[in-house]
Amino acid sequence: MRSAKDFFRPLAVGAPEPLREIPARPSRAIHFFDPSNEKMAAKVPQLVGKVDVLLGNLEDAVKADRKEAARAGLVEIAKANEFGPTQLWTRVNSLDSPWVLDDLTTLVSEIGDKLDVIMVPKVEGADDIHYVDRLLAQLEAKAGLDRPLLVHAILETARGVANVEEICGASPRMQGLSLGPADLAADRRMKTTRVGGGHPGYLVREDPVRDSDGSDQQRSTYQQDLWHYTIARMVDACAMHGMYPYYGPFGDIADTLACEDQFRNAFLLGCVGAWSLHPSQIEIARKVFSPSVEDVAHARRVVAAMGDGTGAVMLDGKMEDDASLKQCLVMVRLAEELAA
Ligand code: GLV
Ligand code: MG
């Protein structure tokens, strides 16, 4: 039986293990829709070509008595539409739920040729990925699919974060990881009640400055990023394994400014995209996760100035060398991938 390893086999015998060939298609916004919600499902065709990824969500936010309807709705939508440059993903139910087996068997056999990536929630370790990997290999072989489905894991339990490196390395199918801040907050017993984003209580305060009468002057406070540690761990694990890291959901739909800030922090730290829970967040993600024209122009100047890439040059009073050249190449390549 064909396994995922066959699909990702090194191209030349004796060649060093290559970077796995994950399709470098843009996925700045992963737009969630509930396939059991007729209003939302009706909007799907209008979003084709306007968003990088459309994700039919079967897990949380779909009521227990709508799980079958959501699964059947996704099959219907996938069969009725062509998706062109937009990728079709799904988030199946968690591996400890009564629905996931039917999710995987139905989706692979019915629409495996249309799906690009299967997002698996609440992944806790390599075993979870091994299970999904094996099952997908069997279902793909049965369905006669000629390309493997990729797997994306949500990092949303303390155990998952502790095992992040082994999760990334568990299968050549691994496409990426998303931060799941809401479930992760609950699992860690954080004292928040939000879906992602910051909290006004999580801050640092300036040192005190005493007036001559001994009273303290007004002191500024600076809100901190609750997700910095987890995003940084996730980004390192993904970079090590040639996968893509994503920020997950930002639940306060009306607060577009804070959403943009949260997405930008993730972009600067190395993430390639985020989830969008409302059409307004698609534009935010597209903007934030595309390098700016100015940054790309600057990066190209550094690349040109560095010639053969060795040594150091001065540009606008700043020293550039091999390491800044490599950063600039990340930016230029991302711009090229997004433009392709
Ligand atoms: C997403 O699934 C989350 O729990 O934040
Ligand atoms: Mg979750």
What distinguishing features does this structure have?
single chain; 340 residues; alpha/beta; 8-stranded parallel sheet; two-stranded antiparallel sheet; 42% helix; binds glyoxylic acid
Textual characterization of the structure:
The chain has 340 residues and is an alpha/beta fold. It contains 13 helices and twelve strands. The longest helix has 18 residues, at 126-143. An eight-stranded parallel sheet has the order 9-6-5-4-3-2-1-10. Strands 7-8 form a two-stranded antiparallel ribbon. The chain has a two-stranded antiparallel sheet with strand order 11-12. α10 runs parallel beside α11. The protein is globular, with a radius of gyration of 22 Å. The chain is 42% helix and 15% strand. The structure holds glyoxylic acid (GLV) and magnesium ion. The site of magnesium ion (MG) has 6 residues, from α8.
Mean pLDDT: 92
Tertiary shape: globular
- Annotation field: number of helices: 13
Largest sheet: 8 strands, parallel
* Range of strand content: 15-25%
**Ends distance:** 35 Å
Q: How many whole angstroms does the radius of gyration measure?
A: 22 Å
Region (Disordered): 195-218
Biased composition (Basic and acidic residues): 204-213
Pfam families: HpcH_HpaI (PF03328)
Keywords: Lyase, Magnesium, Metal-binding
